[in-house]
Amino acid sequence: MGAKVEILSKKGNETTILHTNRPDSIPVLLLPQIGVETTDTIVACLQIGGEKVTREVVVPAMRHWTVYIYPHSHVDIGYTNTQENVEFIHKRNLDVAMDLAERTADYPEDARFRWNPEVTWPIERYLNSESPEKKKRLVEAIRKGHISVDAGYVSTNTSASSDEELLQLFSFGKKMEKETGRAVKTMVQVDIP
């Protein structure tokens, strides 16, 4: 059963030949660039054999969305893998993130790549083990805002921590804040009953 669908509009026309013998199949039809900024009207024509059906259809203006992509990688030391392997993965993530940030540095502000390592543990491990050149590159990436520095050293239940433990938990983030001049990021979870 061959059929043809024509979409006619002021902004252009599209013709789609339907090649199916299944009456329950759903064809994909391309539309000219309509309904993007304003509501538009099209004429849809379906032709099967010698018969033709034509309808006028109103296509509403497209809903515009703002999509925020928040790249990060959850740090689960010992839960998803050994400490050694998790450290390797997260240090590699920092290298790849810096590469992507450098490649997108000339993009519009909101399109530039930024990385959030979630906690300061990967940053500390990187600074304790990499070459001086790589350490300098990471500190510079933090200064430029390519890499975020989160307040906590690792993910922990702060409600079960003593005052002394909390001071330790946030001490490396504060050290990085002083060294780079970039404020640490805090993530607060609020449970609403």
Could you walk me through the main structural features you see in this protein, from its secondary elements to its overall organization?
The chain is an alpha+beta fold. The chain folds into 2 domains: 2-59; 83-180, Methyltransferase, Methionine Synthase (B12-binding Domains), Chain A, domain 1 (Orthogonal Bundle). The chain has helices spanning 83-103, 121-129, 132-144, 163-180, and strands at residues 2-9, 12-19, 40-48, 51-59. Strand 3 (40-48) and strand 4 (51-59) form a beta hairpin. Helix 1 (83-103) crosses helix 2. It is elongated, with a radius of gyration of 27 Å. The chain starts with a strand and ends in a 13-residue tail after the last helix.
Helix content: 25-40%
Q: What is the mean pLDDT?
A: 87
The appropriate CATH architecture of the largest domain is Orthogonal Bundle
Q: Tell me the overall shape.
A: elongated
Quaternary structure: single chain
